[in-house]
Amino acid sequence: MAISSTPLEPVIRAIDTFSRRICVLCSALSLVMVAVMLLIVIFRYGFQLGWIALQESVTYLHAAVFLLALGYTLQCDGHVRVDVFYRRFSERQQARVNFWGTLVLLIPVCCFLLYYSVPYAADSWALLESSKEPGGLPLVFVLKSLIPIGIGILLLQGISELCRSFIGWRCSKEAE
């Protein structure tokens, strides 16, 4: 949906640009993850060598890709949607559904998750929590920090989608 010229336009563009840049980072992390996994397989089956830290790094990269890409996935409308009725709606009706869904569901859920994940990550930082596995990465606190960061990015993109939906709903010339 095209964004008409409104005061919300710069906010939408800034958040969307931020989400796209995070997606580029996630793409790079995905390539790194594949390369590390290839190294693990080569070391394991070619040389009978294995390192827990290397294996854990794949888990960390996997978590980073999924959590950091939440906002971009929302921007691209890539999340699961039950659209039995939605697909038959006009653009204006879809914008209304998106507006209220974002306002009533997405934003409160993100706030709830942030409320619990920030102290969870902070406690991990206070302990400088590390892997329980011998030879594992001493960075569990960083991994746990990805939860509120990813949810924060999703919340930001939710605000962008809320603004976009508001414009589509309230500023559309389309009749219902």
Word description of this protein:
By secondary structure, the protein is mainly α. The chain contains five helices and no strands. It is elongated, with a radius of gyration of 20 Å. The mean pLDDT is 91.
Tell me the radius of gyration: 20 Å
In total, how many beta strands? 0
Give me the secondary-structure category: mainly alpha
Largest β-sheet summary: none
Number of helices: 5
Which labels suit this protein?
176 residues, mainly alpha, 5 helices, 0% strand
Topology:
Layout: H1 9-47, H2 52-68, H3 70-75, H4 91-127, H5 140-170
Helix pairs in contact: 1-2, 1-5, 2-5, 4-5
Provide a quick synopsis of the model.
By secondary structure, this protein is mostly helical. 74% of the residues lie in helices and 0% in strands. The model has no long low-confidence stretch (mean pLDDT 91).
